[in-house]
Specification:
The chain contains 15 helices and 34 strands. By secondary structure, it is α+β, with helices and mostly antiparallel strands. The longest helix is centred in the N-terminal third of the chain and has 32 residues.
């Protein structure tokens, strides 16, 4: 009687309800049972035939006298070979490897050499090939077929442990001895701090090392089994020692220094802060590279930052990028205005990209701030006193300095009439509320404006950091391309009523019959000249240039800046009609009585008044006091102005 398998169940002795129902339904269908039986029989026949074919092919594979494909013995591919040929191939390989090669186990700090003469390694080729021949043939035909199919695409190494002659006792002994020799106990590092000596003394620790002898032994046997004699690299099992937290010691005993820097908000250079401690990244690396139980002493000390104030002072505000000095006339009220404007501007610092506005920095010129009245020009070109007159000279001097420094000017307007305290075309007019002068610090470093008045000059310096440039210095140049002369006219509200006059020297007489100068219009009408209302200005059309020179004063290039048209202004006088006076004959004077005493000595010549000298401002070119006037720059004086 056949014994039932573990997972084999007994066949049921009665039909289930579902089977009964299925059978009942089939019986109700006429002719269905006969056709189904035929189909089932046919399918079964096909399956049986296929199985028989596969089994036949599998049996044929089992009976072949060659080894299955891709079968390796001691690293030699004996697939497809017959038994004798396979034995010969393995025998040849044995002579080259097992008898000559040494297996070297490479450990982190030493190595083990397993040489053939001590391991007594040898292989029985006939037994090894017998194992290869039996691969895939120990099962039934189907197993043989499946194994053969697999062998066509995958390699298979024959386990040679049973056919390999090897001194395993020696191998185990040398591995165990090596494991004992390399074993190291865990030693944690030691740290001591001497705050008085400002030192941190460290003795590095040592991790625990151990060699897994059992695993290494099995790995070595596997290498011999497959004939792999390449170096076997094997690591210890390691238990690390406690880490040294240098960061913690740094945080406890040290302080960070800070580089000197430029504060953009306060516009000041901030001094560096000296720190205390040690180079944390350096000593962290030293600890990582140190051998076990190595003493290391860290000395803590003052640490000067990389960037100091002294270094920054050699960079920031170290160079005069551009400067200009413009002479001003003697006029105390106007000079006061110049001084107040310069005081407001002096020390102004612009960060890179910031814009300077004259009106924003100086503010409105008022009496409350100390500004006094000096001559300005109205929209119709009249000269009138106004609070703050003359400060245009400060703006013009800054503009000229900006041109010398090659800075970016963003807003500038010329005066109505030509000024003489800066080169022609290098002036800038300003007027509160409508006319401003602006420029941008287009350098990479902050820029300071130094402004002052002394010795009859307005001084402007633009101090920053010199940029790399292709020139040595700049010369400003204004070329006059047209001139319009002025005339002498009588003062009138309307320009059409301002008749042109000609001065006739000695053309009239006064009541005493003495010759006097008079004026005459084109109709021959004569006039007596009164107060001068406006002194004259010659009109000019000027092209402004900036010339760039090298250190040998050789012109590199010229840059056209702008074209300015300065108006002419006629000299105007108040006049009264001239009438010929009636000259009376003088009555004879009686003879004087002789003086009993001699006349006293005459008084010395009077000392002339040192004060005096008029002062006019320099107007703009527009249609209102801001565009056509300006808070004037005394001493322009056109062609008739006088300098102090």
């Amino acid at each position: 009687m056949k014994k039932k398998g573990k997972f084999e169940a007994s066949k049921p002795t009665h039909k289930t309800t579902a089977e009964k129902q299925a059978g009942a339904k089939q019986k109700k269908t006429p002719g269905n049972g006969k056709g189904g039986k035929i189909a089932a029989v046919s399918a079964a026949c096909v399956v049986v035939a296929a199985l028989m074919g596969l089994c036949g092919y599998g049996m044929a594979l089992q009976n072949r006298d060659t080894i299955f494909p891709n079968v390796y013995v001691a690293g030699v591919n004996v697939g497809g070979l017959k038994q004798d040929a396979a034995i010969a191939a393995v025998q040849t390989a044995m002579e080259k490897s097992y008898a000559a090669d040494t297996l070297t186990v490479v450990l982190p700090d030493r190595s083990i050499s397993l040489e053939p003469d001590v391991t007594q390694v040898a292989l029985d080729p006939e037994s090894a090939i017998a194992e290869a021949m039996s691969y895939g043939r120990t099962g039934g035909p189907v197993t043989a077929l499946l194994t053969y199919r697999k062998a066509q695409t995958e390699e298979h190494d024959i386990n040679l442990e049973s056919v390999l002659n090897l001194d395993t006792q020696y191998i185990r002994q040398i591995i165990d001895q090596t494991a004992k020799d390399c074993e190291r106990e865990l030693i944690n590092p030691k740290v001591s701090v001497d705050e008085t000596a400002k030192t941190i003394a460290i003795v590095t620790g040592s991790p625990a090392y151990s060699l897994n002898a059992d695993d290494l032994y099995q790995t070595v046997l596997e290498r011999f089994t497959v004939g792999d004699y390449s170096d076997l690299h094997y690591d210890y099992d390691t238990t690390p020692c406690d880490p040294i937290d240098l960061q913690g010691y740094y945080d406890k005993f040290c302080s960070e220094g800070h580089d000197a820097y430029y504060d953009e908000e306060t516009h000041e250079l901030v001094k560096e802060e000296v720190g205390f401690g040690f180079d944390l990244p350096y000593y962290t690396q030293q600890l990582a590279m140190a051998a076990p139980e190595t003493p290391i002493v860290i000395h803590m000390e003052d640490r000067v930052p990389e960037v100091t104030l002294e270094q920054l002072q050699k960079i920031y505000f170290a160079d005069v990028l551009g400067s200009y000095d413009s002479a001003h006339v003697y006029n105390p009220p106007r000079t006061t205005n110049l001084e107040l404007a310069c005081k407001a501007i002096n020390g102004t610092i612009l960060n890179p990209g910031e814009e300077f506005s004259f009106n924003k920095v100086v503010g409105e010129r008022t009496e409350a701030k100390g500004f006094q009245k000096a001559t300005v020009y109205t929209q119709i070109g009249k000269s009138e006193p106004e609070t703050g007159g003359g400060v245009c000279q400060v703006a013009s001097t800054i503009y000229s300095a900006c041109l010398m420094a090659n800075l970016q000017v963003t807003y500038r307007a010329p005066h109505m009439y030509l000024v003489t305290y800066v080169p022609r075309g290098m002036d800038a007019t300003i007027y509160w509320g409508s006319q401003d002068y602006k420029f941008v610090n287009n350098t990479e470093y902050p820029l300071r404006i130094d402004a002052s008045v002394s010795g009859g000059y307005v001084h402007i310096k633009l101090v920053g950091t010199e940029r790399e440039k292709d020139y040595d210095h700049i010369v400003l140049r204004g070329d006059t391309i047209a001139v319009k002369d002025w005339k002498i006219v009588m003062d009138a509200e309307k320009e059409s009523d301002q008749k042109e006059l000609t001065i006739v020297k000695g053309g009239g007489v006064d009541a005493n019959g003495k010759a006097i100068d008079i004026a005459m219009d084109s109709a021959g009408n004569k006039y007596i000249l009164g107060e001068e209302v406006n002194y004259p200005y010659t009109g000019y059309t000027v092209n402004a240039y900036r010339d760039f020179y090298d250190a040998n004063n050789k012109l590199i290039r010229s840059e056209f800046l702008h074209r300015d048209v300065f108006l002419s202004r006629n000299q105007s006088f108040k006049v009264t009609p001239y009438k010929e006076p009636e000259i009376k004959e003088p009555e004879p004077e009686p003879d004087p009585e002789p003086d009993p005493e001699p006349d006293p000595e005459p008084d010395p010549d009077p000392i002339p008044d040192p004060s005096g000298g008029g002062d006019e401002t320099d107007p703009g070119t527009g249609d209102n006091p801001g565009e056509g006037g300006g808070e004037g720059d005394s001493g322009s004086g056109g062609d008739s102005g006088s300098w102090w």
